[in-house]
Amino acid sequence: MANKGYYIYKKKNKKRKGSGGGANALIFLFWACAFALCAWLFVIQWFNISKGPYGEAAANFFFSYLGHAAYLVPLFFFYWLLRSIKYKSVNIFTFLIGMGISLAAVSGILSAFRDIFKGTYIEGGVIGGKCFEFLHNLVGTAGAALFLLAVLFTGVHILFAIPWLSTFNYIYNLLKQDYQAWNEARAELKTKLAQAETEEEITGTSAKSLAIKDDVVPLRSKPEIRRPVAEIIRAPKPYDNSQPAKAADVPEKSDKKLDIANFKLPSLELLSLPKNEGVLGPSDEEIAQATALLESTLKNFEIGATVTGVSPGPVVTRYEIKPDPGVRISNIVAISNDIALAMKARGIRVEAPIPGKDAIGFEIPNENPMMVTIREILQDEVFTNSSAVMPIALGRYADGLPATTALEKTPHLLIAGATNSGKSICLHTIIMSILYKSKPDEIKFLMIDPKRLELTLYEGIPYLYDPKTNCEDVSVITDAPGAVKSLQTLVKVMEKRTKIMELAKVKNIEGYNKWAAEHGEEKMFYVVVVIDELADLMLQTRAAIEDSIQRLAQMARAVGIHLVLCTQRPSVNVITGVIKANLPSRIALQVASKTDSRVILDSLGADALLGKGDMLYQGTSDQKPNRIQGAYVSESEIAAVADFLRAQGGPDYPQQLFTDAAAVVGGRPEDGLGASPEELIQALTLILERRRVSQDLLKANFGSSARATNILSVLEMKGYITKPEGSNRWEIHFELIEQGLNELKSSSNTLEK
Predict the structure, then answer these.
(1) From edge to edge, which strands make up the β-sheet containing 316-323?
(2) Cα separations (Å) of 61 from 47, 64, 603?
(3) Is 40 strand, coil or helix?
(4) Residue 301 belongs to what H/E stretch?
């Protein structure tokens, strides 16, 4: 009987095992279908693909009732499936209640946004609209939004079971512990500084020196002090100027024509001598004390590091700190504010790491900063021996070395900074550097100054240039419409120069000037466009200014046109993405916020500058910005140089804006890119008769599409016809045409006689 019972049990057990395998298969099929359903809902809600009739109906159903909140439905179901698998069973009714409340609240909030922000493509669906309308009628828009947020938090709590109290307690305790640790470290540092000051009062010696004996670890090795200049020499060095003139040789102002053969470059004696005497930067004793205090502060924070090098500069001194093995750079950078407190510094800039070195740079302001003058940089060998066409004296690097660059290598420069940060002085330094190096037949300035305060100092110098007017009427441009027209005309000058170089088979202005010297043709001069306040122009004529700057920045370098843009509003509305992309070289002076620093340099640092010419310069080949103390030039110095230049003559450049390319390369005028007086007379007469102008009309009269295009360009540049922005129709100035036609006919009759 016992054996019989055993066999009966075994037989039943086999049946149970068989039925259990079938149940597992059904469960697996259920979960697989559930995941497939969730994935299908996700696809039809999130992607615009072929959905089929049922998918289209389901998507429209969810969107009509929930609006954009319908995108959350498949995500909530995925969450429920994952929790069901993990915890074996999850109450479906609790889940549906939490999901329903959350979706209704989200759709209601979206409907509130649609009501607040008119014209936006935000949809809350039927449910959201009803919920928001009901609450809006009771408590208004703001009250409806607040109550919907409360409902949303309730739904999220039901759905996810978030322990809010525990979460808030954890965050609060974490912040509290961090604050207590920081406060204890700060109190310890204050205690040590107080002890050092007490010892100083008792013994009459320096507190920092005593700190070396007690609390400060002695220097493991004396840091190397790298002084690039032993002294600032007051006497001027020899300056390589062709026929330099002294200040006493400045002749009286006159209206005589510029004599370029006898033109004299300004002398250094027109500039003030450096006021600083003695050693550049802090003394060796001050450096030793600062080094000891710096290492002591690091030790107090349990950071092992050694000062290995010191580079004194005129305004800041860079201390090179080498961390011990195993010390993280981030730990040193994190206590930069504490180091500034211990050093009693106005602000510290950290360079971590210094490019090409295994050290971190701490740039600490000097107690007695020195002024860097433009004269000491102009007379330095770095500037005088430069082979660049347009060398620029910027100032001195943080380590004291002279800072120079070449404008043609930049090739365009953006200067930005807050008010009174030294921005305009930097701009004057760039202009003065070029005036001391090149003659008016080599470089011209197109100056635009909406503020009417800075660049007007150069009014009347022979370097001025404006492509839209003749040299007798050229001046510093102070109005936005004039600036727009000059820049648009300069774009056409750029295009004409490009065509001339194409015919001469050269690729840049250097190659063309060599070709011109060999063939006896007139050389091209460089053009430097200086805009003192870009923000004002962008405010008035944004589209036209931005378009011209973009065209010039992209193509003008090869033909010798370079841009120097300056603004005191470093915002994305002024320094747009288009401008930044085409101006890789930038100078950032002191700004008010980290956001402004990112706008200028795409990195932090400008917000920690000291002002008064303290700048960060980033060239095209620089991985990180270089800190420079800008050179100072006074208004009296600018006036002295400008008077000296004006006394030798006024602006002078060819009256004809566009040189005939065919004539330059030895071709016939009929094949070139201009128009003879006879052709202009015919074209103007034709326009007056037909009262319209087009390329087809001119082509029918002159028989060539190329000639028609050239004549249209000449007519536009002479102001007879214009094409307004955003329009394809020519606007004809009939009064100017009649006046020009009479002048052309009279000049033609004079030539015939």
Answers:
(1) 224-225, 305-312, 316-323, 360-365, 349-351
(2) 16, 5, 48
(3) helix
(4) none
Burial of 125 (0-12, 13-18, 19+ CB in 10 A): buried
pLDDT reported for residue 164: 67
Query: How far from the centroid of its chain's Cα atoms is residue 414's Cα?
Result: 8
Going from the C-alpha of 352 to that of each of 329, 616, 670, the distances in angstroms are 7, 15, 64
Three-state DSSP string of 456-483: HHHCCCCCECCCCCCCCCCCCECCHHHH
Q: For residue 391, what are its two tokens? A: 């060398």
Burial class (CB in 10 A: 0-12, 13-18, 19+), 236: middle
Residue 567 pairs in a beta bridge with 416
Distance CA 269, CA 381 (A): 17
Integer Cα distance of 548 and 141 in angstroms = 46
Residues 480-496 as b or e (16 or more Cβ within 10 Å = b): beebbbbbbbbbbbbbb
Residue 191: φ, ψ to 5°:
-65, -45
Low-confidence ranges of the chain (pLDDT < 50): 1-10, 12, 14-19, 202-220, 230-254, 656-673, 751, 753
pLDDT tens-digit map of 539-591: 888 878 888 888 898 888 999 999 999 988 788 878 887 778 888 899 999 88
Q: Could you tell me if 315 and 610 are in contact, meaning their C-beta atoms sit under 8 angstroms apart?
A: yes
Which of 573, 629, 626, 618 is CA-nearest to residue 596? 573
Q: Which residues pair with 322 in a beta bridge?
A: 306
Residue with tokens 């727009």: 484
Phi, psi angle pair for 200, to nearest 5°: -65, -40
Q: Token digits for 97? A: 């209640």
Q: Rg of the chain over CA atoms, in angstroms? A: 38
DSSP string, 337-376: HHHHHHHT-S--EEESS-TTSSSEEEEEE-SS--PPBHHH
Q: Decide the pairing of beta strands 721-722 and 626-630.
A: unpaired
Residue 386 near residue 404, CB atoms below 8 Å: yes
Nearest residue to 211 (alpha-carbon basis) of 224, 225, 198:
198
Q: What CA–CA distance (Å, rounded) separates 698 from 144?
A: 68
Query: 164-203 and 284-300 are packed helices; what angle lies between their axes, rounded to 10 degrees?
Result: 140
Alpha helices in 204-281 (DSSP H): 207-213
Q: Do 631 and 272 form a contact (C-beta atoms < 8 A)?
A: no
Which residue has tokens 């001046």? 475
Contacts of 556 (CB under 8 A, 6+ apart): 490, 494, 562, 563
**Max Cα–Cα distance, the chain, nearest Å:** 149
DSSP bridge pairs for 586: 414, 618
Return the structure tokens found at 340.
Answer: 């500034």
Please say whether the beta carbons of 66 and 125 come within 8 A.
yes
How many Å apart are CA 513 and CA 559, to the nearest integer? 11
User: How far is the CA of 240 from the CAs of 250, 642, 673, in angstroms?
Assistant: 19, 20, 42
pLDDT at residue 22 in the model: 65
- What DSSP designation does 275 have? -
φ, ψ of residue 363 to 5 degrees: the values are -95, 105
Residue 221: which residues within 8 A CB-CB, separation 6 or more? Answer: 306, 308
Residues in a beta bridge with 632 = 373
Render 61-109 in DSSP notation, one character per residue: HHHHHHGGGGGGHHHHHHHHHHHHHHHS---HHHHHHHHHHHHHHHHHH
Q: State both tokens at 494.
A: 């750029």
Residue 256: per-residue pLDDT: 63
| Number of other CB atoms surrounding residue 400 within 10 Å | 23
DSSP secondary structure letter of residue 231: S
Can you read off the two tokens belonging to residue 444? Answer: 């011209």
